[in-house]
Amino acid sequence: MTGNHKDTSITRRRALAVTGGTVAAGGLAVAGYQSAFADDATATAQATATASESSSNSECMTLMSSVTEGPYYLDGALVRKDITEGKSGVPLTLRLTVVDATDGCTPVPGAAVEIWHCDAWGYYSGYTTANPGGSAPAESEDGSTADDNTYLRGYQIANANGVVKFETIFPGWYTPRTCHIHLKVHTGGEKEDGTYEGGKVNYTGQLFFADDIAEEIFTLEPYAKHSGTYTELADDMVYDGGGASSGLLTLKAVHKSDPSKGYKGSLTLGVDPDAENTGAGSGGGGEGGTPPSDAPTGTPPSDSASPSATASS
Questions:
Q1: pTM (2 decimals)?
Q2: What pLDDT is attached to residue 103?
Q3: How far apart are CA 266 and CA 195, in angstroms?
């Protein structure tokens, strides 16, 4: 199921360039994964210990430079743990740890992590008539009561250990992209009227899934109703092959013999809380404005993109 399309879509607003991080020293990467899905009391104790250990070592590798937010970003996502709104799909518990890459990978409490992704058939809220490529039912045929402006979008505020947790579904795919989740890390703002306001964006990135797991998921319902050419990681124009340092999630099946029961995904994100970059995105083309609030309809990514394009959905 390898696709070789390349996308000419460019960022609708901007591509931010700051550093992120993963942990190469102090045992944080290993210990963080081991504690990723422990109960809250255990996770707190372990995260405190590993943060102290990493601070004493003070080595922290740069995770990645930011990538485009893509054309399907919407302002005003809700602060909430469960972003599914009844959308059907394989359950995914996502646990992300935000650390300061400039200060020994210490936690960044209060950081706001924002995520958004497509549903099982490749549709985004706010852009439900945008064709995901291949052959898929209309988004409205999924039978859910999800709000077409808000499903599969949300914020969580990091706790004292820099940890956020989301309950969502495994994303589907759309031409010509591999399976992915978009994210931003914000600092300096606050929760207001159910969303997150103010502050600045420190990091804009994407999270990725191993091909073997994604392809197994896509044989299940409702994903199997979307047929066509799926782009594997090696052919995706955003994922650069760097593993966790490029956003590849660590995934653990809830039940090894039954993938339909769901997965737990984890990753450590190192950022510079003082950094901000609001420069225009790369890849050429114009910048789109903020979409209206009444469920705008988007256009699908082009199937005939230039191989040199660097912006993507």
A1: 0.75
A2: 87
A3: 24
